[in-house]
Amino acid sequence: MIAFRQAAVDPWLERAAARFGTPGFVYFTPDIAARNDRLRAAFGGRFALSFAAKSNPNPALLTWLKEGVECLDVSSIGEFRLGIEAGWHPARLSFTGPGKRDFELAEAIAGGIGELVIESVREAVAADAIARGLGRIQDVMIRIAPPRVPKGFGDQMAGRPCAFGIDLEDAADQLPRILALANLRVVGLHIYSGTQCRKAEAIAENYRIFLGIFREICASYDLNPRRLIFGSGLGIPYHDGDAPLDLEALAADILPDLDAFRAEPRFAAARLVLELGRYLVGEAGYFLTRVVSVKASRGSRIAICDGGMNNHLPASGHFGMVIHRNYAMHKVGAAGEPTEKVDLVGPLCTSIDRLASGVMLPRIEEGDLVAVHASGAYGLTASPLHFISHQPPREILFDGGDLRDVTRIL
Length: 410
Ligand SMILES: *Cc1c(COP(=O)(O)O)cnc(C)c1O
Prior knowledge:
Blueprint: H1 2-20, E1 24-28, H2 29-42, E2 48-52, H3 59-65, E3 71-74, H4 77-85, E4 93-95, H5 102-110, E5 115-118, H6 121-133, E6 138-145, E7 155-156, E8 166-167, H7 171-179, E9 184-191, E10 194-195, H8 200-220, E11 227-231, H9 247-262, E12 271-276, H10 278-281, E13 285-297, E14 300-305, E15 329-331, E16 340-345, E17 354-361, E18 369-372, E19 394-399, E20 402-405
Parallel strand pairs: 1-19, 2-3, 2-12, 3-4, 4-5, 5-6, 6-8, 6-9, 9-11, 11-12, 14-16
Antiparallel strand pairs: 1-13, 7-10, 13-14, 13-18, 15-18, 16-17, 19-20
């Protein structure tokens, strides 16, 4: 499978490195388009999509995505500005995040944001006062934290003490206080309780939990929601041997429940939205780094690369991973089989700057290019770029049959 992909991708990775230099990230838009099509086909159009900007806020990517994805979810006023600069109409944007500050709420409301995702009573009271001051009625969704998340989610935002949203157990106390605010209009509910799950049954079970909560809350407060957000939870393979999610099996499992739900009069006008980042863009991106030096050290072969954790923290294993496992990767332009174990480290003066431990690759020499897979989401954006003050990596977009430098200037 890798070999087939490699033949298609390597000439472009080699060109990207030659034209724009390394280290860099290369994002392939045809792969994102294919993912988008597959999602829509699997769910038969029952879900609209909302792209979580935090997974990859590259401006050119956000610009490209606005043609194929309905909504953009932002988690800071910085991401809100990036969305607007990329040409998204503010009405297509939602704003999540547990620590929104007053100036962020004010700028988003004044800027015409579609919905604020309200995560606490405090935030609702602040947003209401700001909206009143601006003479506005602001549409909001309320984020609910379910008491339970099925097993199989690599990262969990509910089902235990958490910072996000309103715990379902507290809804009876807190929702009436939000619903009473005159300058907020509650148009929907939002749940994002876990992510990075590759088990279709667990995701389907989670969506059934969502549907139950949506029913319960909407019945309690007689809400006829316009939007219901499903934090998708869809995971991707990062490591050799990881099985991909069976999206079609997930769809087959959940579609009857979705259709029954949509048939209820209360939900007739509700737009169901899948909110996601990595599943759309993660596998479309590669991190490209060149080997600067090779050291034989006490029985290990160590390749020192021009980019490491400063560019790609998750690949180094320091982004919520309990045990470091090597990201899938390959030596660019090498037809041969993996023959030799090598450690890949970055250029930083710290022992934690490691891209791979004992990975099997074709023999690695000085000047070789290595491509780390599944790097289109939570790559550059999740990395400590300023640590040790190296030049930032390039960001390259493959689109319309050509490569373009789309490096975000900070
Ligand atoms: C991060 C985030 C997402 C996207 O998560 P992925 O794992 O990239 O799909 C969606 N919604 C919210 C509220 C988020 O914080």
